[in-house]
Amino acid sequence: MRYAELRHPRRAVALVAGGVLAVGAGVGLVACASDGSGTSDRPAAAAASGPQVKVVDPYIPQPAKGGMAAGYLILQNDGGTPDRLVSVTTDIAPSATLHQTVDNRMQQVDGIDIPAHGKGVLGRGGAHIMFEDTTRTLKKGDTVDVTLTFEKSAPITLRVPVLGISERPGDAGATGGSSGSPASSDAATEGHAGHGG
Predict the structure, then answer these.
(1) Residues 53-99: pLDDT tens digits?
(2) Which architecture characterizes domain 53-180 according to CATH?
(3) How far is CA 173 from CA 63, 102, 141, in A?
(4) Domain parsing of the chain, residue ranges
(5) pLDDT tens digits, residue range 11-31?
């Protein structure tokens, strides 16, 4: 009886020890597999899900009078994370502010939302950039350096052309390209009623 009592605990210990070794080996294999593939995919997945903002069809219409101008563009976000345009600077005005038109009245806002896989549109009758106290008279064919600052994305600097008061990007005779990028690029700009377009 004593032998049986001693033998069974040994067998139990052996079985438990064997089970621990098997489980440990399995955990090791899982850890190796996840370290080999999961870690390398994480940075790429994180980058792909972040905001990927580009500027499409920016333009400034030739102002009807000096001192003030409006800017329009589309902020296209191909990424999986929303972003926000928070400020604008330019070489032609000490003040460049963001506005939204509500009930036919302009209201200054602190940012323009850019949804994930969507667009933030600055256009006639809606959101737009106001260039106030411009340092020179803008005419069709001029270009304006504009830097857009975002909540998450890197700043984007554009060389934005001034179009005729009634022109829009893509019109015959309109100058400049149709998109912008983080590097300086030529792009087209549009007008706004009451601000030169």
Answers:
(1) 999 999 999 998 888 999 999 999 999 999 999 999 999 999 999 99
(2) Sandwich (2.60)
(3) 18, 32, 10
(4) 1-49, 53-180
(5) 444 443 444 444 444 444 344
